[in-house]
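Module 6 notes. Inverse folding takes a fixed backbone as the condition and produces residue identities as the prediction. Think of it as a translation problem where the source language is geometry and the target language is the twenty amino acids. Below is one complete input and output pair. Work through it position by position during the lab.
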């Protein structure tokens, strides 16, 4: 066989005989060599057909999505909580409802639902800005990693439990705002980073700014007495506790 020339023969795998490369069956034993006669290229060599690798199947792109990069989902739960707070800050200023109908100004009695409405009620612009800003920041950070259900659950537990504890402690409680829920979101987001720091592992979170925000919200009762100290403290404690499973899942 000359270099670069066509193959003069092939070996039959059944009987070992040398046969022509252009036939489909061995003339000596009848063994099937190939399904069809091979095609020849311009130089007379057998041109084997190469199979193309299958193209990867990609799902259809969503609006605003770049090929190969999935667009981030909007933090709908965090946006909903902020909008509900804005509505609660404005609705009692209209003729629809009065402030004492949705906020807590005494023992609840049968009006237990005020634990929910009071969490979205604000009588002070500075209080609303601090609390809703905290909800927006840490709600979005949590929702990006844990989803909307986690944000709604953590906020709800922190806000309702905080207001409920304030009602139990004070003989004539005055409480409103979602400062307990905001502190719960902040605490739940902070726990994995605090665990990483305790293990002397690095973290890219700005914990100094987080502490400053927490202090601002916790000290808001100085400027807005209706924002309960108890609600904020209970919310922070519950948030740190609920952040433990998040820290464990992050470690895995």
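Target side of the pair, the amino acids:
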């Amino acid at each position: 066989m000359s270099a670069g020339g066509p193959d003069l023969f092939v070996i039959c795998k059944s009987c070992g005989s040398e046969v022509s490369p252009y036939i489909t069956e061995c003339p000596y034993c009848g063994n099937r060599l190939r399904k069809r006669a091979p095609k020849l290229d311009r130089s007379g060599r057998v041109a084997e057909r190469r199979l193309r690798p299958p193209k990867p199947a990609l799902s259809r792109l969503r609006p605003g999505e770049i090929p190969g990069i999935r667009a981030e989902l909007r933090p709908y739960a965090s946006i909903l909580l902020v909008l509900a707070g804005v509505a609660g800050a404005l609705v009692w200023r209209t003729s629809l409802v009065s402030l004492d109908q949705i906020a807590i100004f005494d023992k609840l009695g049968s009006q237990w639902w005020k634990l929910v409405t009071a969490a979205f009620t604000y009588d002070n612009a500075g209080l609303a800005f601090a609390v809703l800003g905290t909800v927006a920041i840490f709600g979005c950070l949590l929702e990006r990693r844990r989803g909307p259900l986690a944000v709604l659950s953590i906020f709800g537990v922190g806000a309702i439990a905080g207001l409920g504890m304030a009602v139990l402690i004070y003989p004539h409680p005055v409480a409103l705002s979602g400062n307990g829920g905001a502190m719960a979101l902040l605490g739940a987001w902070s726990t994995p980073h605090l665990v990483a720091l305790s293990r002397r592992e690095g973290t890219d979170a700005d914990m100094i700014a987080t502490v400053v925000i927490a202090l601002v919200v916790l000290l808001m009762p100085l400027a807005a007495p209706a924002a309960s100290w108890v609600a904020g403290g209970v919310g922070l404690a519950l948030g740190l506790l609920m952040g433990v499973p998040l820290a464990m899942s992050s470690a895995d």
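Reference fact for the lab report: The chain has a mean pLDDT of 84.
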